[in-house]
Amino acid sequence: MDFRLTTSVDAVLAICVIFAMSFIPASFVLYLIQERVTKAKHLQFVSGVSPLVYWMANFLWDMINYSISTAMVVGIFIGFDKKCYTSPTNLPALISLLLLYGWSVTPMMYPMSYVFNVPSTAYVSLSCINLFIGLNSSAITFILELFENNRTLLKFNELLKKGLLIFPHFCLGRGLIDMAMNQAVTEVYARFGEEHRPDPFHWDFVGKNLAFMAAEGFVYFILNLLIQYRFFLYHWMPESKKEPLPYEDEDVAQERERIYKGGSNVDILQVKDLSKTYMGQRCPAVDRICVGVPSGECFGLLGVNGAGKTTTFEMLTGDTDVSSGDASVAGYSILTNILDVHQNMGYCPQFDAIDELLTGREHLYLYARLRGVPESEVCRVAEWAIQKLGLSEYAKRSAGTYSGGNKRKLSTAIAMIGCPALVLLDEPTTGMDPHSRRFLWNSIMSVIQDGRAVVLTSHSMEECEALCTRLAIMVNGTFKCLGTIQHLKYKFGDGYVVTMKIRAAKPGMAPDLNPVEAFLESSFPGCVQREKHYNTLQYEVASSSLARIFQLVLANKEKLNIEDYSVSQTTLDQVFVNFAKQQSGEEDVIVLHPRAAGGRRDVKITPEKFPEKMKTR
Fold first, then answer.
1. Which of 20-24, 62-66, 527-531, 547-551 has the highest mean predicted lDDT (pLDDT)?
2. Is pLDDT above 60 for 576?
3. What is the largest CA-CA distance in the chain?
4. Is 491 helix (H, G, I), strand (E, B) or coil?
5. β-pairing, 345-348 with 422-426?
6. What is the DSSP string of 231-294?
7. Alpha-carbon distance 117 to 43, whole Å?
8. Residues 263-288: what's their mean pLDDT?
9. Residues 196/97, Cβ–Cβ less than 8 Å
10. Alpha carbons 43 and 346: distance in angstroms, whole number
11. What range(s) does the ABC transporter domain occupy (predicted)?
12. Please, are residues 66 and 106 in contact by the beta-carbon 8 Å criterion?
């Protein structure tokens, strides 16, 4: 009776150890999830970190932290003098069990970092999973052993114990229980004056548990690396079928033909039929785009949200797999030489991939080292980036306290570290004030003047006109137009915008705009009124020569009491809006002029909700 009571108490103690050790490995995934969600992990890969090095560094750090917990558990056992775990023969087995448990369960937790997006949810879920496996597997097998007279249950229990060896939680719990039972047997033998000291490392004792945990550490770590390298995705995912290419604009077709014929071999970035189709979707997010970006060029990529711009960047940087097609950076393919691609690429993601606990200067030091900058030059390079992006005042502050604009400047500075041949900037000026935006534009211009290539996405037409030598407008994953800004305005613009200021016929009277309206509508059939104020009219005139507009307006200037007037070309905004209407789900949405929407910008109203007479293009 004393034997069974002592064994039961020690078994409960073993279960308590399992309970405590279930929370520690679950905590190792928290920071990994945060880095993956904020894209800081991917930005490290783009900066030159090998996935193998990344995971080995994390594993080494986690094992150092786990070793501290192991030392505390062993210290507690020694302090309370638990002979079943601290006797000279059992203490090495206890330390081996605890260390190999950390060795095997830590990489087992790593693949879960791809499943969860909220660290707190992951911690609670993984802790519960560890508790469930560890407590239930150990308790069930221990209880079944008490049925000594039932051979069927004992046989089932032996099979169950062999099957559960794939779980480190069971190996730890069962090993501790076996050590407790062995100590109780040893004490029974001692009462009869006999010595019974079996080797705890024997295979049928704790040896098999240790061996399985040692092997599981390698297996789970390799499995995690295969997931990181998308081994299963690349080898098991079927290739999606492609429909024939739809009609393309002639400029887009010419660029495609140039890529096909090898005319872009000298370009830093070459994109050939790059496509991405997400699982469960029929329409591709990116559909066979082709473009080449030479050195010294800033290429703009425009499109509404969901057009495929960020997906394109994610494929170019290796953040998401490519459904079909290929792209190369400085001659290295993103499919076969992604590590070499990363060495020649800087990347500013759409959302700031920064660590809130590090200062701006520490970020730049870190990424300078990752880029391979010599240690003697790291400080100088970091200071160059700080001065270049105007971060001197905030360099010593933690990045978590930065404003949105300063975070974007820091992200852009990280992308420029190491002078990569290609810099990808995904909406870099979002949230910046006008002064900071201009400052960043000058920094980007200096990159272009250095002979490097820049690919820029933006929703600011002013930014594109200031920086981009060429641009493409993306709709539903395809290029709808491609060329210089002036070329796109001339080819896809709706003519000219005529703005007139009318004076009153007599002092004290309100200006009469009706004769001017009648004149414009009769002289330029099909013109559209964009604005009408107290003394100002603005019309959009299509299909008319610039000389004819000036000739007619000048001839009738005095007759119509026109005080002054101006004629301007259609803006890039209007060209963009015309293409944006083709985006899926946007066909029946009409973009109103700010004045027609009560002074608000970018107001969208469906035709059913707005009077016909108030619609404008």
1. 62-66
2. yes
3. 129
4. helix
5. parallel
6. HHHHHHSPPPP-PPP----HHHHHHHHHHHTTTTTT-SEEEEEEEE--TT-SS-SEEEEEEEE-
7. 17
8. 86
9. no
10. 9
11. 269-501
12. yes
What DSSP designation does 336 have?
Answer: T
Q: Supply 112's token pair.
A: 């879960």
Reading the block at residue 521, the tokens are 């509508």
Q: pLDDT digit string (tens) for 306-339?
A: 888 889 999 999 888 888 899 999 889 998 888 8
**Cα–Cα dist 458/480, whole Å:** 17
Query: Any idea where the domains of the chain sit in the sequence?
Result: 2-234, 250-488, 495-568
Distance CA 319, CA 121 (A): 24
CATH class of 495-568: alpha beta
Question: What tokens does 204 get?
Answer: 């049928």
User: Which pair of tokens denotes residue 580?
Assistant: 């944006």
Q: At how many degrees (to 10) do helices 404-416 and 375-388 cross?
A: 140
In the chain, % of residues over pLDDT 90: 24
Between the alpha carbon of residue 235 and those of residues 110, 239, 371, the distances in Å are 22, 10, 31
Rounded alpha-carbon distances, angstroms, from residue 33 to 26, 28, 29, 53 = 12, 10, 6, 17
Whole-number Å distance between alpha carbons of 429 and 438: 9
Task: Kindly report the number of other CB atoms within 10 A of residue 4's CB atom.
Answer: 11
The answer to whether 327 and 242 are in contact (CB under 8 A) is: no
| The token pair that represents 463 in the structure block | 């930014």
Band the pLDDT of 496: cuts 50, 70, 90. Answer: confident
What gap in Å lies between CA 494 and CA 165, rounded to an integer? 72
CATH T-level topology, domain 250-488: Rossmann fold (3.40.50)
- By the 8 A CB rule, do 460 and 429 touch? yes
Q: Alpha-carbon torsion 432, 435, 436, 437, what sign?
A: positive
Name 423's bridge partners: 346, 454
Q: How far apart are CA 147 and CA 550, in angstroms?
A: 104
Give 205's DSSP letter: I
Rounded-to-integer distance, Cα 404 and Cα 432, Å: 7
**Which of 538, 497, 496 is closest to 517 using CA atoms?**
538
How far apart (Å, rounded) are the C-alpha atoms in residues 245 and 477?
12
Q: How far apart are CA 207 and CA 376, in angstroms?
A: 50
Radius of gyration of the chain (CA): 35
Burial class (CB in 10 A: 0-12, 13-18, 19+), 257: exposed
Give the span between the Cα atoms of 96 and 594, in whole angstroms: 71
Q: What is the DSSP letter of 368?
A: H
Per the DSSP assignment, residues forming a β-bridge with 532 are: 537
Helix H or strand E encompassing 155: helix 151-163
DSSP-assigned beta bridge partners for residue 482: 472
User: In 3-state terms, what secondary structure has residue 351?
Assistant: coil
Start-end of H helices in 22-118:
23-27, 29-37, 40-46, 51-79, 83-86, 91-109
Burial class of residue 69, CB neighbours in 10 A (0-12, 13-18, 19+): middle
Number of H helices and E strands in the chain, helices first, is: 24, 16
User: Are the CB atoms for 188 and 7 separated by under 8 Å?
Assistant: no
Pairing of strands 324-329, 298-302: unpaired
| Cross-strand partners of 566 | 499
Q: Which two tokens stand for residue 69?
A: 């917990």
For range 483-492, the mean pLDDT? 82
